[in-house]
Design a protein that fits this description.
The complex is a heterotrimer. Chain B has 15 helices and no strands. By secondary structure, chain B is mainly alpha-helical. The longest helix of chain C has about 35 residues. Chain C starts with 6 loop residues before the first helix and ends with a helix. The N terminus of chain C is likely disordered. The chains are: A alpha/beta, B mainly alpha, C mainly alpha. Chains B and C meet through helix 1, helix 6, helix 7, helix 8 and helix 11 of B and helix 1, helix 5, helix 6, helix 9 and helix 11 of C. The structure holds adenosine-5'-triphosphate (ATP) and magnesium ion. Adenosine-5'-triphosphate binds next to strand 1, strand 2 and helix 1 of chain A.
C-alpha cells in the first residue's frame, strides 16, 4: 500500500463500558482505528457488537449517566477528544465532525422547518447571517440532490419522503464543511434503490470535499461497494482490519468469513440482517476468556479459549486470531 | 377548516344538553322556587311576576326555547335583586376574572416551563427529586388554605402586599397589581406544580428521541437543544392542561375570588347564590359553561398550530 | 378527552387506564414502602378519632370557654381555642367526621354508579356506549364546583346533599375510567376465553371484568376522595356546606380568618389536618397506582 496522508482521526485503545445492574458492560473494549482524508472506513459487525457506541464515543454523544468507565485516546486533527471538556467537543461536533443517523424518519425534528434545522448549525458555528445561511442551505440541498430547494427549506420533515429526509440529514451533517463524517447505518431504513443512491451520493461528496468517512453498516454488500478500508467488530473489539479489497480477498478471521458467507444472494431479501452465523454473540458483561468468538468458531482450539489473541499482522492488514484462515488447521481442532 | 366545522358540530349536542340542564336546574328545585326566593310574606302578585319572569308559568320546553332565543340575542334577563341586566353584570365582572386568569397563567407558565425543562434534563437528580416532593405537597394544599398561608406569610409576617380590598386597574395600576398578586400566586402555585411535572414527563420522552441526538450532533448549545428543539414537541399535554385551566378561570376562580374579595365572575355567582338570584345564576352558569366548552374547542384547534403534522393530515 | 372537571383529576385519570394482572397480594404490600404506610397510618388515626369522637374525653365542640378566648395551646386546650372560646382540638376532630364522610361516601356512590355503567359501555360498545359517553361528556363540561354550589345552595345545606352532589360530579369520571379499562380488558385472552365458552355477558362482566378493573378504580378513588374533601372544604369555607354549628375543617378555617393577624394558629391547625389528610390520600393513591402500572398494565 502506498503511504497515506496523516489520519484525520486516530483512536487508540478506545474503551466505553456501560453501568448495568449486572456489572460493567464492555460495549467498546479497546478499539484502535484511524481514517485518512478522502477515504471511507467501513465498520461492520453483528447487531450489538458496539458499532454505534464506537461512533458516539468519538464525539461524546452517549448518556453520561449510563457510562461506567471510559479509556483510550481519540486524536482528531491534533485535538484530543477523549476526556475533553464538553465545550470543546461541542465545538467540534457539527462543525468539524458531521453525523448521519440510521432512521431519517425520526432524526429530524417534526415541528421545525427543514430550513431552520439546516441553518441552525451554520449560524451557531460559523456566525453567518440569516441570508447567507439560507443561500448556503439552498446550495447544500442542491448538492445532495434535492430539487426545488427553496420550497423544501420551508417544508416540515413529514412532507418529505424517506430518501429525501436522509438527503436532508446528510446536508445538515455537511453544513459546516466537516473534515470527518460519521454515518451510522445511513441506508438501513431505506428501500434498495434509494440505498444505492444515498451511498453514491456519500461517495461523491467525500471525493469532492476530500472528507474522511466512517460508515457503519450491517451489510457486507455495502462495504464492498463503498469503503476503502474495513474494520470488523465482534463483541466490542476489532477482530480484523485492513484495506477492504485485501480483507475480502485474503480473509484471515473466521468471523469475517462467516460474515462474508452471510451476504444475501440475489434471490434473498435485500438488506437482510446478518443472522446466519450459528450461535449467539457473547455476553458483554461477562465475556469469555480468550478469544470472544471461540464459542462460535469452527476452528477454535484450547488456546483460543484460554488466551486472547492480539490484533496483529503486516501491510496494514491485521487480525486477532491464533489460527487464521490460510494457515494450517489448528493441531487439535475442536469438536 | 373542515376540522373546525366537525368539532363545532360535535359540540352542538353537548351545548344544547348543558344549556338545557342549566335552565332546568331551577325547575327541579323542591317546591316553588319563586316562593322560596321571595319568602312567605311576599304577595301573590309578586310571586306570579317572578314565576312569569323565570318562565315557570309555561311548559318547560317552550320556556326553554324562549330563554334560548333571548340568550342568542344577548339577553340573559335581569337580576331580580338589583335590576341590573345579567349581561352588564358579567361585562363588569369579567375583566377582573380575565386579569386574574392571565396573571396566574403567565406566572404559572413562566416558572413551570423552565423548571419542567430543567428537571427533565437532570431527571432523578437532586433538584428533580426535591421538586417532585415539593410539587406533590403543593398539589395537596386546597386553594383557600394556600391563600391563607400566603396571607400569613406576606401581609402578616412580612408586612408586604396588604389585603386592602380590590383596586380597579383604571384607578391605579400599582394598587391593582398589589391587590392581584396574592390571588394570582394562590392560583399559580399549584399550577406550577402540575404543569412542571407534566412537562417534565413529556420532555424526558422527547429527550430520548433521535432528533434530539441529531441536534446534539450538530454541536448546538444545551439551552438551544432544550428550548428550541425539545420544548415544542413536548408541550402538548401542558397546552391541554393550561387550556382547561383558562376555561375554568374564565368562569371565575370562585374560591380565590371569595377569599380575597375580588369582584370577578366567581364572586358574582357566589353572591347570587347567597341572594337566591335565580335569573342571575342561570345567566352566569350558562355563560360559564359556554366559555368553558368554547375554550376546550380552542385548545383542540391549537394542536394544529403546534404540530404541523396534524395540520397537513387535516388538509389532505 | 377534551372536557374534564378538574386538572388534578385529569392528571390522575389520564394516566389511569392500566390493569393489574391480579388483585394485590400480601407479598406486594411489603414493597409499598414506608411513605405509603405512614399515609395509611395517618388516615387510620384520623378515621379512628373521628369515629370515636363522642367517646373521647374531648370538650364539647360547641360550648365556649369564655375564660380563654382565642388562646394558644395550653394544658386545658391542647390546640388552643378560637375567637369565641371553642376548643380547637375538639372541633378539628369532630370536623374530621364531615370530611371523611364526604370523602368516603361520595366516592363510593360515584364508584357504585359510574363503574358499572362504564363497564357496560366498554363491554357492549355500540349505541349504549355512545349515549352514555355523550351524557358523561355533557356532565364533565359543567364546571364541577359550580354544580356543587348550585345543588347545595338550593337543595339545602345538609351533609347528605353535599355527598350526593359530589357523587354526581364523580360519576362521569368513574364511568370514563371504567370504560377505558374495560376496553383493554375485553381483548385479554382470559376474557375472550370466558366469552367463547358461552358464558353470558353479564356473568363475564361480573366474574372476569369487575374483579380486574376494581383495583385501579379503587386506587383512583383514593385520589378522587382527596379532591372531594378539598371540594367540601371549599364549600364549608364559603359558608355553603353544612350549617356552622357542625364543625368542619373548612368552617373552622373560615372562622379563624378574622384573627389571622393576631392568631394565625387558629387557621393553621385545621389547615394542617386537612393538608395531611389530602396529602396522605394522594401519596397512598399514587403509590398504589404506580404499583399497578408496573405490574399489569403495559404489554
Ligand atoms: N445507554 C446504554 N446503556 C447500557 N448499554 C448500552 C447502552 N447503549 C448501548 N448499550 C449496549 O452496548 C452494546 C453495543 O450496542 P451498539 O448499539 O453499539 O450495537 P450496534 O453494533 O450498533 O448494533 P446495531 O447493529 O443493532 O445497531 C449492546 O450490548 C447494547 O446493549
Ligand atoms: Mg447501531
Amino acid at each position: 500500500m502506498t503511504a497515506q496522508s496523516a489520519p484525520v482521526l486516530e483512536m487508540h485503545e478506545l474503551r466505553t463500558w456501560f453501568a448495568t445492574p449486572e456489572g460493567p458492560l464492555r460495549a467498546v473494549d479497546g478499539v484502535s482505528l484511524g481514517v485518512e482524508p478522502g477515504r471511507c472506513l467501513g465498520v461492520v459487525g453483528e447487531s450489538g457488537s458496539g458499532k454505534t457506541v464506537l461512533l458516539r464515543s468519538i464525539v461524546g454523544l452517549l448518556p453520561r449517566r449510563a457510562i461506567a468507565s471510559t479509556g483510550g485516546t481519540v486524536c482528531f486533527e491534533g485535538l484530543e477528544l477523549a476526556g475533553a471538556p464538553p465545550a470543546v467537543i461541542r465545538d467540534v461536533r457539527g462543525r468539524r465532525i458531521g453525523m448521519v443517523f440510521q432512521d431519517p424518519m425520526t432524526s429530524l425534528n417534526p415541528v421545525m422547518r427543514v430550513g431552520t434545522q439546516l441553518t441552525d448549525g451554520m449560524r451557531h458555528h460559523l456566525g453567518v447571517g440569516r441570508q447567507e445561511a439560507r443561500r448556503r442551505a439552498r446550495a447544500l440541498l442542491e448538492a445532495v440532490g434535492i430539487p426545488d430547494p427553496e420550497r423544501r427549506l420551508r417544508d416540515y420533515p413529514h412532507q418529505l419522503s424517506g430518501g429525501m429526509r436522509q438527503r436532508v440529514t446528510i446536508a445538515i451533517a455537511l453544513a459546516c464543511d466537516p473534515s470527518l463524517l460519521l454515518a451510522d447505518e445511513p441506508t438501513t431504513a431505506l428501500d434498495v434503490t434509494v440505498q444505492s443512491q444515498i451511498l453514491r451520493l456519500l461517495g461523491r461528496l467525500r471525493r469532492q470535499r476530500n472528507m474522511a468517512v466512517i460508515l457503519v453498516t450491517h451489510d457486507m454488500g455495502v462495504v464492498a461497494g463503498s469503503t476503502d478500508d474495513l474494520a470488523v467488530m465482534y463483541a466490542g473489539k476489532v477482530v480484523e482490519q485492513g484495506p477492504t479489497a485485501t480483507v475480502f480477498s485474503a480473509t484471515r478471521h473466521p468471523y469475517t468469513r462467516a460474515l462474508l458467507e452471510a451476504i444475501p444472494r440475489a434471490d434473498a431479501r435485500p438488506g437482510e440482517r446478518l443472522a446466519t452465523i450459528p450461535g449467539q454473540p457473547p455476553s458483554l458483561v461477562d465475556p469469555p476468556s480468550g478469544c470472544r468468538f471461540a464459542p462460535r468458531c469452527p476452528r477454535a482450539a484450547d488456546r483460543c479459549r484460554a488466551e486472547e489473541p492480539p490484533l496483529a499482522g503486516a501491510d496494514g492488514h491485521r487480525f486477532a486470531c491464533w489460527f487464521p484462515l490460510g494457515d494450517p488447521e489448528p493441531p487439535a481442532a475442536a469438536t | 377548516m373542515k376540522q373546525v366545522k366537525g368539532r363545532l358540530l360535535e359540540l352542538a349536542p353537548v351545548l344544547l344538553l348543558v344549556s338545557f340542564a342549566t335552565f332546568a336546574l331551577v325547575r327541579v328545585l323542591p317546591g316553588d322556587p319563586a316562593r322560596a326566593f321571595l319568602g312567605p310574606q311576599a304577595s301573590q302578585q309578586e310571586v306570579a311576576l317572578l314565576r312569569h319572569q323565570i318562565g315557570l308559568d309555561r311548559p318547560i320546553i317552550s320556556a326553554y326555547g324562549h330563554w334560548l332565543a333571548r340568550a342568542f340575542h344577548g339577553d340573559l334577563g335581569q337580576s331580580y335583586q338589583t335590576g341590573q341586566s345579567v349581561v352588564s353584570a358579567l361585562a363588569q365582572r369579567l375583566p377582573v376574572s380575565i386579569e386574574l386568569m392571565l396573571l396566574a397563567q403567565v406566572l404559572g407558565l413562566a416558572v413551570a416551563v423552565p423548571v419542567g425543562v430543567l428537571t427533565a434534563y437532570r431527571a432523578e437528580g437532586l433538584v428533580d427529586r426535591a421538586w417532585s416532593g415539593l410539587s406533590f405537597a403543593t398539589i395537596a394544599l386546597p386553594s383557600f388554605v394556600l391563600g391563607l398561608l400566603l396571607i400569613i406569610v406576606f401581609p402578616v409576617k412580612l408586612n408586604v402586599l396588604q389585603i386592602s380590598g380590590f383596586t380597579h386597574l383604571t384607578h391605579s395600576v400599582g394598587g391593582n397589581l398589589e391587590s392581584m398578586t396574592l390571588p394570582a400566586l394562590t392560583l399559580a402555585l399549584p399550577q406550577i406544580a402540575i404543569y412542571s411535572r407534566v412537562l417534565r414527563g413529556d420532555m424526558i420522552a422527547t429527550l430520548r428521541e433521535d432528533h434530539v441526538t441529531m441536534a446534539e450532533a450538530k454541536g448546538l448549545p444545551t439551552w438551544q437543544i432544550l428550548f428550541r428543539y425539545a420544548l415544542r414537541p413536548s408541550s402538548f399535554s401542558l397546552i391541554t392542561l393550561a387550556g382547561l385551566n383558562v376555561g375554568q378561570l374564565m368562569s371565575g376562580a370562585v374560591v380565590v375570588e371569595f377569599l380575597f374579595g375580588l369582584p370577578g365572575v366567581g364572586m358574582l355567582l357566589v353572591s347570587s347564590i347567597f341572594a337566591h338570584d335565580l335569573v342571575m345564576i342561570q345567566g352566569v352558569i350558562l355563560f360559564t359553561v359556554v366559555v368553558y366548552v368554547a375554550i376546550n374547542l380552542g385548545v383542540d384547534l391549537l394542536y394544529a398550530v403546534l404540530d404541523p403534522r396534524t395540520r397537513h393530515v387535516a388538509a389532505a | 378527552m377534551s372536557q374534564q372537571p378538574d386538572p388534578n383529576l385529569l392528571v390522575a385519570a389520564e394516566a389511569a387506564p392500566s390493569l393489574p394482572s391480579a388483585t394485590l397480594s400480601l407479598r406486594a404490600s411489603a414493597r409499598l414502602g414506608p411513605v405509603f404506610w405512614l399515609s395509611v397510618g395517618w388516615l387510620a388515626l384520623v378515621g379512628v378519632l373521628a369515629a370515636t369522637a363522642s367517646l373521647l374525653p374531648l370538650r364539647d365542640p360547641n360550648i365556649s370557654d369564655f375564660s380563654s378566648l382565642a388562646a394558644g395551646p395550653s394544658a386545658h386546650h391542647w390546640l388552643g381555642t378560637d375567637a369565641v372560646g371553642l376548643d380547637l382540638l375538639s372541633r378539628i376532630i369532630y370536623g374530621a367526621r364531615v370530611s371523611l364522610a364526604v370523602g368516603l361516601f361520595s366516592i363510593l356512590i360515584g364508584l357504585a354508579v359510574g363503574a358499572p355503567l362504564g363497564a357496560v359501555a366498554g363491554y357492549f360498545r355500540g349505541k349504549v356506549e355512545a349515549a352514555l359517553m355523550t351524557v358523561a361528556d355533557a356532565m364533565l363540561s359543567f364546571p364541577a364546583l359550580i354544580l356543587l354550589l348550585f345543588i347545595t345552595a338550593f337543595f339545602g345545606k345538609t351533609l347528605v346533599n353535599i355527598i350526593i352532589a359530589i357523587a354526581v360530579v364523580t360519576v362521569p369520571v368513574f364511568l370514563r375510567l371504567a370504560r377505558a379499562n374495560t376496553l383493554v380488558l375485553a381483548q385479554r385472552e382470559f376474557v375472550l376465553a370466558a366469552r367463547s365458552t358461552g358464558a353470558s355477558s353479564w356473568r363475564v362482566l361480573w366474574r372476569e371484568v369487575a374483579p380486574n378493573i376494581l383495583p385501579s378504580l379503587l386506587t383512583f378513588g383514593l385520589l378522587a376522595a382527596a379532591v372531594a374533601i378539598v371540594a367540601e372544604g371549599a364549600l364549608s369555607f364559603m359558608g355553603l356546606s353544612v350549617p356552622p354549628q357542625t364543625p368542619t375543617w373548612g368552617n373552622i378555617i373560615a372562622g379563624g380568618r378574622q384573627e389571622i393577624q393576631t392568631d394565625p394558629l387558629i387557621v393553621l391547625f385545621p389547615s394542617v389536618a386537612m393538608f395531611l389528610t389530602v396529602f396522605a390520600l394522594n401519596l397512598a393513591g399514587e403509590r398504589l397506582r404506580s404499583m399497578i402500572d408496573a405490574r399489569g398494565g403495559r404489554r
